[in-house]
Queue: 4 jobs
Job 1
Amino acid sequence: MDVHTDSSTTSMISLRGLTKTFDKTIHAVRDFDLEIVEGEVVVIVGPSGSGKSTVLRCINLLEIPTEGFVTVDGFELTDVRTDIDHVRAEVGMVFQQFNLFPHLTVLQNITLAQRKVRGRGRAEAEEEAARQLARVGIPEKADAYPRQLSGGQQQRVAIARSLAMDPKVMLFDEPTSALDPEMVKEVLDVMLELASEGMTMVVVTHEMGFAKAAADRLVFIDEGEVVEVGPPEEVFSNPRHERTRAFFDKILY
Amino acid sequence: MDSDARTASSDHPEVAHLPQRKAVRVRDERPWWDTFPWWGVIISAVLIWMAVQIVQNDDYNLAWERIYPGLRITVRTTFQAFGIALIIGLVTGVGQISRNVVVRNLSRTYVEFIRGIPILPLIFTVALIVVPWAQDRIGYKIGFEMRATVTLALIYGAYMAEIFRGGIQSIPPGQTEAGRSLGLSGRQTMRSVVLPQAMRAIIPPLGNDFIAVLKDTSLLSVLGVLEITQKTRQFSASTFKFREGYFVVAFIYLCLTLGLSILLGVLERRMTRDRKGER
């Protein structure tokens, strides 16, 4: 397995022996190892129920691992003494269902955590929000409520909301799966740009085009285990494992 | 499942538990007399008729004079009991879904205990047994109005705990996850993300409870608290004018509850208007 051990790069995320069991018997993730270095874009693919979302959610402890170690930016998350809120502020997360706060305007959505967690003043937080909204291409929507936006716009607000916290890592959990087809591209474009700017990203997605264009490494997982890791082109065109081949046969035209 | 309901639609036993509705022809617009709130007209007419009786008839007038002064205590105990119950309800409602095993079980015990006992025995128990026991120990005398208010607050606090819990649990977990993954603490997420949204689900049933508290202040008459029901009992017992007394007290309660009900309706409509088009 291809693991970055180059000493010139800094490890950003480290998963070692990660195991997540639901109801004591169902192994969602089993003895999972993955090292992700700063600035790397890793795309995780796998069949439905393979545990890819669970892996992602373990990285900011939305799921608490049953066993193993999760280290983000040098903080050992699985250590009870680690201030988990502090680490979460450094790890942006974008959800399949956007999860914008419906009772707040777009601007308030983006300033809430900046003010409460980062302790920024109103003016500073709003300035940052405006900057992030411009970055995701919808500066004019600051005063709209989430329900007044299309799915694509909502997801871009969700990305802006995370970016406003100046995260060191961005996690994407099937960010385009709940979108109408014509809105997928606007979200992927934002993600591509983010990748080109050097953000460390872990993306669970079925968008193989995005994986080809942006991913440094593609991780194929099945039944909670890493089956194959490599550059996306290589994994697509020349999968080494039968399970990987079978999966791509099903999803690629 | 109810066996009568099963036979009523024996063709489709699997849907027998669903309410059977008559088919209604779909129309774009309903005539004004269909949507007009006739019930409001009827009740207004009844209230006006009652008011006229009270103003014109000397016996009713006398009853009014004697009962009306109790309104102060009725309103005061309603607001006080409701206010305290809100705080108790919020704390024990959130407590019931707390991660802390002690807090969770204490909250649950309180709610189940209170909900399992009818109001009247509870009032007697708290006011005549618990409070005297407590005031012997703290060396501070607690009046009957205060005892009654606290009892009502304890009772409605338990009901409201369930309302708060339900409201909070109606908010999708994704909202909490989004808050927490932005680095907000559990408490901050509850306050800034979950509770404001839960209020929409919470306010209408809380309004119902407010009306219920108002009506249940009448139970305080058993402790001799001089609110309007007790005033009525005194008036009727001393004059034997039962019909006049209870006519007047019913009028006062109706005015209060209907007024509140209209206010709640306005509040609810305002909230649903906010909500249009939300996913």
Job 2
Amino acid sequence: MGLQALFFYIFATVAIASALMVISAKNPVHSVLFLILTFFNAAGLFLLTGAEFLAMILLVVYVGAVAVLFLFVVMMLDVDFAELRSGVMRYAPIGLLVGIVLAVELVVYVGGTAISDTAKSATSLPIPALTERTNTAALGDVLYSNYIYFFQLSGLVLLVAMIGAIVLTLRHRTHVRRQDISTQVARSPETAVKVVNVKPGQGI
Amino acid sequence: MDTFFSTYVWPTLIMVGQSLLLMVALLIYIAYVLLFDRKIWAAVQLRRGPNVVGPWGLFQSFADLLKFVFKEPVIPAGANKGVFLLAPLVAVTLALATWAVIPLADGWVIANINVGILYVFAISSLEVYGIIMGGWASNSKYPFLGALRSAAQMVSYEVSIGFVIVTVLLTVGSLNLTDIVYAQKDGLGTMIGLPNTFLDWNWLALFPMFIIFFISALAETNRPPFDLPEAESELVAGFMVEYGSTPYMMFMLGEYAAIVLMCSLTTILFLGGWLPPVDIAILNWVPGIIWFILKATMVFFMFGLVKAFVPRYRYDQLMRLGWKVFLPLSLAMVVIVAFVLKLTGWA
């Protein structure tokens, strides 16, 4: 247990510290880099609780893809930092409110599991031990067998969102010369080269 | 106190020792793979390649190492200093970290984790950060363009690599790299009555995926013909323009560690890992690590040949290949493989 606790405190401390740095760093790119560090440590915490599949998926999806695009956008933005700073006090109450709501939810949840037996039994659903059923297989059971229709439905929602994004940003520019690979490949000497008999002194 | 030593100190020491051993072996292998790469390139162009330092140039990489280390590191005045120096460290650390789960022979693996292949996939998807951070922190135009290109390129080809891995997982039924190798003991060859041979390995059963994985691996590691992030004819040296000395060397080291990793991954996923090509006594007697190194080096030889032969892709061609050719193809293969496995009951 000792090593586990040690790693828990390392991951948790770094996660919280870097989360603080996300909102206090002066440079927005540094903020995103600290956000990535927070994700990374959250993945470490997942690993400690035995949720190895979730930890890896967090890395692949959020850190490996979403945060890259995030970083991409933030790097390209031309942000006026002074203007950004001046708005802090205006938005502070809203941020505080969201924070308080999240904190209250957490407290209610954790407190509820401590007080009520039914809530406690709901959180400790029969999860098979890691040795007999791996995380990946157990998640697959839940997603693809028990809740297949909900899973398909959420996929459909994402598909609609994707199509919406494409429709909003797609524009057909005319007068652009695009490469057409099939016509390039279909070219033959007959269509590409013309043999001209040039008379001397006249040119073409 | 005794239990403290037996439960914490010794396992930690053993772990550190194993990691150091693997790292040193890997670095020496990379040194020679670098030389091998240059020799292949030279041979294709009818040159001799590096042949001055040591017999046949065998110490060339070590001479290069000394040269890089003793040079003065120059940090541009406008650079974001912390991120600038962090970027090569990130690149090399991530590239080496992946090796923790690679089984080099039967049981020769530092961490035999259940989700091994996902770990490799996750860490190699993080490698893009070294490049983006370096490109941005240089505070210069060519590096930034290189970083933007590489971000788009690596994210695009990760998608098809992911689907290729899914097809392998469907046939194997496990995310553990050791299990993936064991599953290749029996396959198409044994199905038609042959003994265990190289025909059982995944490369034959999943042939188009093998090719897609190979090409995507080239793109994922920024190897020619997909080395657009550092295309010297357009971007001087891309994200590495402002780097010199040891930080530059670390970028190169990270790049080659990632390339060798992709070679090993190809070996594990498609070429049967440490299994001998034919199951007969004399080949079984050869240690598994030898087979593994031979196969990985063979894959690297193909990497080297591609670098020497194939001209660089244009950026739009690169994106077209990733999104319009490989993605639909690999997606279709996932469905086909799943159907075949379900209908025949092989899974």
Job 3
Amino acid sequence: MNVEEIVEGVTKGNRKLLAKAISYVENEHPNSKEILRRLYPRTGNAHVVGITGFPGVGKSTIVSKLTEEFRRRGKSVGIVAVDPSSPFTGGALLGDRLRLEGADVSKNLWLDEKVFFRSMGSRGRLGGIAKKTGDVVKLLDSAKYEIILVETVGAGQSEVGVLEVADTVVVILMPETGDDIQVNKAGILEIGDIFVINKADLGGAENVERWIKYMLSLDEETVMELSKLSHAEESRLMERLRWKKPVLKTIADRGVGIKELANEIEKHYEVLKKNGVLQKKRNERAKISAIEIAIEEIRAEIVRRYKSLLDGEIDPYTVADKIVKEVLRC
Amino acid sequence: MKIRVLVAKVGLDGHDRGAKVLARFLRDAGFEVIYTGLHRTPQEVARAAVDEDVDVVGVSLLSGAHIPLVPRIIQYIREYGGNPDEMLIVVGGTIPHDDFPKLRDAGVDGIFIPGTPISEIIKFIKEKLPEKKKGGK
């Protein structure tokens, strides 16, 4: 299939060609960069929402319920769900789609023309998303899906990769996953714009809620205090205070709290748009991906061009110096 | 290129131990495996096969309803713009030998009955998929 055919298909809402385009991008097919380049001008309209949290907290169930809710609000929904690939075999069990509600309930999301669900293996990338998740999001964006939900790998404490692709990050927690020290550690809990305590019907939900709220109040205090000391970090920290991070409780499998969650997601997007942060985030991201693409191509070129030098006996530091000197000169 | 496999349970059949064990073994064989969960309709399986752009569709049936259900999955894959001639369609479960020709005529590439060693299924996929892809192009 040629670039032209795929670009036109994606633009016109042809699911089969969108599916193929995603495979091209995932497999780093030689045509994939050209496809993305052509479709890029059509991107930027979707609200990209990251859904992250520990394994088993209910990310996929919440994704299904949110999809249903946004469809009710008349919006089309694209979903990219990432599960881990084996570091040994490269294989993966992609088990997020099965939570998507089908014919057994009133609304069949499997057959909804305005829903596109794609499962991805993380394929060696750490951080909660796959290397190509951002590009797959761009494809869905260019195919005019209005809300794009990115479900991460079940994340531990430091999987903050979803920040690279999402405008809004929803962190899902559940009762009995630790105490007030756990919630004040750096990492995943710093990246949430919205916090959700799922399985709120289990005992202990109130404790998690209290600790998260306490953690968020400390955020505000530290910003205020730090702003007295330095100016360097001040503006970045202040930015975080422009949005009061909500803490919600849900019982996802019964649909409890989903409307409120969808409301907060929409509200956050409006705030991002209004205060200019959205554009800033996206510009920053475009810059980073340009650097990444360039570095990747340079890396491949280095491996090709300096094979004999790399295979030689010289120590790696000297080899690196030689390569850098030569590469940067041209 | 990664081989993507959809492992599907379709219709009123609640027995998914086999499908889950198979999904796990296929994972260990290096495939990306998408499991559909129970009680899917032929349309849902077909839609997933197209949107997920899988190379192999494996349907597990222990209900005896393979004759009405499996050909429909293939038919809907075509209807949704997919090309079942480029995919490997395999069926596993309690399939009587008498029904093999009917399934084969409908476009099924491989049929695996209880007791089949999983290595045989993996070997089948690895050998037959490249042939099928070439044939479809």
Job 4
Amino acid sequence: MTKSFFIDTTRCTACRGCQLACKEWFELPANKTKQLGTHQNPPDLNAYNYKLVRFSEHMIDGKVEWYFFPDQCRHCVFPPCQGAADTVIEGAVIQDEATGAVIFTEKSAKFSKEDFQYVREACPYDIPRRDEKTGRMVKCIMCLDRVQAGMLPACVKVCPTGTMNFGDREDMLALAEKRLEQVKKTNPNASLANPDDVNVIYLLGDTPERYHTHSVAQASPVDRKQMFASVRKSIAKTVNGAEQS
Amino acid sequence: MTNHWIDIKNADAILIIGSNAAEHHPISFKWVLRAKDKGAVVMHVDPKFSRTSARSDFHVPLRSGTDIAFMGGMINFALENQRYFKEYVVNYTNASLIVDKGFGFKDGLFTGYDPKTRSYNKKTWSFELDANGVPKRDTSLKNPRCVFNLMKKHYSRYTLDKVSSVTGVTKDNLMRVYENFTATGRPDKAGTIMYALGWTQHTVGVQNIRSAGILQLLLGNIGVAGGGINALRGEPNVQGSTDHTLLYHIVPGYMAQPMADWQTYEDYITSNTPVSKDPQSANWWQHKPKYFASLLKAWYGDYATKENGFCYELLPKIEKGADHSYMFLFDRMYKNQITGGFIIGLNPMNSVPNSNKIRKALDNLDWLVTMDLHHSETSDNWHRPGVDPKTVKTEVFHFPSAHRVEKDGTVTNSGRWLVWHNKAIDPQGEARSFGNLYVPLMNRLQGMYRKEGGTLSDAVTRLNWVENYDPEEWTRRINGFFTRDTKVGDKVFKKGQLVPSFVALKDDGSTSSLNWLYAGSYTEDEGNKSKRRDMSQTPMQAKIGLYPGVAWCWPVNRRILYNRASVDMNGKPYNPEKAVIEWDGKKWQGDVPDGGWPPMATGKGRYPFIMSKNGFGQLFGPGRADGPFSEHYEPVETPIASHPFSKQLHSPVYKFVTSDMDVLAKPADPRFPVVLTTYSLTEHWCGGGETRNVPNLLEAEPQLYVEMSPELAKEKGIENGDGVIIESARGRVEAIAMVTVRIRPFLVEGKTVHLVGMPFCFGWTTPGTGDSTNRLTPSVGDPNTTIPEYKACCVNVRKADTLTEIAR
């Protein structure tokens, strides 16, 4: 049984405990940021922020709505990033069988700038980032070390409101469906974001684009996977001038 | 809190007003959302749409400083529409008491006002007594001079039209809150009010909370599960620091600071111990002499005897009416009346209003000792921007203090729970806990006074002090112990043994306790109860999330205060589903009751509000400096020149200091048309002295901002992210514009009033982040507490050509 997150954005208060706990657990350095007219900071995911709470505010029919989206890798059931990466360097992206966690390995440091861009674009949720110092691709790894030790991922452990949940995929799906049913009573536009494709299942209380451009997949992962197989190999050969396994 | 964090989940309606709970008390929302899951309506009334609003059922924007008008309107609505809980009001509040014939209220002033002294003679704020000295009551509530009818008349002026006009809240929004919240004025429903500094930091701060007290008593929401008035305290230990007297006006356990008028122990006791002639009133403060004598014994040990008034004469005594709060303290410093001092765990150069003045005031010290985790705007004031260090004479000694994870000890949380925590690591470098800084210092002082003598040296040399700091030892001393062999009931306690509860405290010198409220927290039988983590409950306790075996709660482990008001005269719970206590015919079940007397109907009971002299919840509250009922007054700096409730524009008794730097904008001053409110934010702690040194927190909130509506931004030609200058009559601050629909313009008295909001956590010692927002705020304060009016003043905003305080 693989593991899943269930992220109930209708309970999120954007306290950013998850964002900070993630940084603390991985001992990631702080970025030098600036106030740019929003509470969302850093402005985007980056090599030192695997988790970012996105803020988006709206005036809808004279009513203020403020949506929070704790963004992170979705740990796709069939990860398109792996499909793309495999066409360049096999093993740069792997999936842990026991948990379903998608992991970027040291091999990813060998990617060229274009290779990295290609893998990043393969992600329907725009997650992969690159640590310019080590060259490695980085993102959330499901706190695999913690999970293997029987602990909750750091972001789930600190969440005070029940937004962040983690457990067996079946249980998380059931919880997600149950919460969706409840939330629908007050929020008819509520939905689960790509629950069949991902191991990080978001419950959104309103239409997805009001949360974040990539709150739901921006192209079908299956389409992308097929695309890699056919197209990428030949490009890789010509660009790098060497056969990639 | 009258209740506690978990208990929020029992509410049927939650009114969050004067608080941004989700941002400043994130854990509170665990319980708010549990209540919401079960169908509770969650309402947020606040100038700004915040993360709290986002998770509430709805948000109601309110002009900062108009909460009493808002609450007065709700009290009026409840009274006019019979939404109150009549049985509770008649039996448990002072609604039926007859007020002195001389009492009145006219055009914004209660009787007894003296404009020369800006204070009230409160003689008429009293009750008529019968021949036995017991307050007269009219339980039919027909007497026109009973509290109920005076209150009804007072709040009848708070009509929907007037309230809407002055608060800037639409009538629809007013009604939405009023109807939803007063729906809890039934026996089987409970509503809670969660407030914080958004209510206290006004020149009418105490009366904001009085308004909540009145409303909650009318609705029968005090003493019940899911009810109460819940002050969300700041730091994990703000409740503890209040109990143990961080402030000057009281000594530990909420007893008055000795004053010059009370020269002897007997003077103090006579003047501070209330007397009730009503046999049904427990009048708990009648026991004050026992608590005060035990406190003095704890301070002066064997030196304190009954014969010498327990060394009372050694205590410093303040002059009547003297104000030693920090607003006045820094004013005296500015006027060169103070030469040196200690500032511990505080960054007043950032967090006290009118920072420009405060910073200059500190320059007048010859010496300064600071104890803090980091250098701050306070420790480093001598080389602040624009000042030549050579011109500052102050010698500063900075003692690095340990972080709270580096020390053992207790905190008292908002729910009054005394909770022990173990240190995770040793203090780093030369850092020490405050205890380890303070105990040796006092030992050194005692040694010096013993050797060299000095003015009233006994006050120091006779202190019952310790050799070395041990938090466990202080926890024991706070609980208290017997100073000689004593029999309590049929149990004999030896000299030096811990007292089992405050009932054992005596005024004959046989007991010692640093704080009577904590007596019972550390006992011979059960040890240090702050360490308890026993999750067991009775089924009755489980229904309301009561965990009597987890930590310990003052007083006597009572988790919900005034809980005897949750039952009827026969001791049966008004809401059996969420019963707090219940009389089983022989004793009380559930929570620890407010006194073990049987139900009122037995004739042997006591009124449930045992801490008030007459035993009733005080709808009419004669104890405060500014009136027995709450009344709307404008903030000292206000965008309007008059308001519809009276000609009295401001509180007639608010406190202020005067100096060349204490300038105020006129009412409706065209130079400063915009209301400023200031606040904290989730990622930084208070003045930011600690959290700006945590890189990950600074990453999430890096620089000072000012939140404003798109309408105001357009008017001023400001774009989101622009650098702007905010100016008040006292100062100028740079910030980055955060243009947001979450702030709306208000329609107040027929004109558009804009409001902006700023955090106050940024300071110059963290370069490029901005500097003190409090350079804008005024040194004016509440007449009861002198808490400054941080939440409402007047400013103007313009786009900045260049920024010097904020890095771009």
